[in-house]
């Protein structure tokens, strides 16, 4: 187990990485228990968005999908969100709870096991104003299930921000989400100034996903409402 202290705005978060956690079936290390560069960039983006994008987290409801060690969601709570739910597969839940406790955020941060595409695991969580994801674009075959979960947790006006390292299969995953009706706006060219052009931002792209429908109601709003004062780029 490795403890890291990470600065978010002018405050610190303690995050424990479970470097000895392995998949019970394959025996491979569960890399989701580590803090990746995309999580660092997304956490910094949240801090920058408070001023640069005039988007206040204060009082907002936030869910992080595929939370891993939970850094972006914890950062949202630190920056004023009133309810944050960190979700991931069962093996990562103890580590998420430990990180919530280590930062004294138990009054506003919940931890919940969530399998993408499952009605049972998402039904009681409710809808959120902001969805966060970092490094979840790995397998294109998982995107239909992710899209189903996104529709369940979104409501009219929900924002979805995702950070991902550039990999050969990232575009394929985004294409699958487009087929599911989600708009994709890449903010990569605008990312460096907002996060101070740090080294880890060089290989990370930030995306705004615009959700299509909830039930019979269109919930997608104009791209300008998601990315104030930014010019969208095609991610391909």
Automatic annotation (TrEMBL):
InterPro entries, A to Z: Methyltransf_16, SAM-dependent_MTases_sf
Q: Which domain of life is it from?
A: Eukaryota
What does the entry give for GO biological process? Answer: methylation
- The answer to whether the entry has keyword Methyltransferase is yes
**GO molecular function: any one?**
methyltransferase activity
Q: Name one Pfam family in it.
A: Methyltransf_16
Key words, A-Z = Methyltransferase, Transferase
Keyword Iron recorded: no
Gene3D superfamilies recorded? Vaccinia Virus protein VP39
UniProt-recorded name of the protein? Lysine methyltransferase
């Amino acid at each position: 187990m490795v403890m890291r202290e990470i600065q978010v705005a002018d405050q610190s978060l303690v995050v424990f990485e479970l470097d000895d956690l392995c998949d019970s079936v394959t025996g491979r290390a569960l890399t989701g228990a580590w803090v990746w560069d995309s999580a660092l960039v997304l956490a910094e983006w949240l801090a920058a968005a408070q001023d640069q994008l005039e988007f206040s987290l204060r009082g907002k409801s936030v869910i992080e999908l595929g939370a891993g060690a939970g850094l972006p969601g914890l950062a949202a709570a630190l920056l004023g969100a009133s309810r944050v739910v960190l979700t991931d597969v069962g093996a990562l839940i103890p580590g998420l709870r430990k990180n919530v406790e280590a930062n004294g955020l138990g009054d506003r941060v919940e931890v919940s096991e969530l399998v993408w595409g499952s009605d049972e695991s998402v039904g009681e969580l409710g809808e959120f104003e902001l969805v966060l994801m970092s490094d979840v674009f790995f397998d294109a075959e998982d995107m239909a299930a992710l899209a189903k979960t996104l529709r369940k947790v979104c409501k009219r006006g929900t924002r979805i921000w995702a950070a991902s390292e550039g990999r050969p299969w990232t575009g394929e995953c985004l294409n699958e989400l487009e087929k599911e009706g989600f708009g994709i706006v890449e903010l990569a060219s605008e990312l460096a100034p907002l996060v101070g052009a740090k080294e880890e931002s060089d290989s990370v792209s930030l995306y705004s996903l615009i959700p299509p429908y909830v039930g019979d109601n269109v919930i997608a709003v104009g791209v300008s409402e998601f990315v104030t004062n930014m010019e969208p780029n095609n991610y391909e």
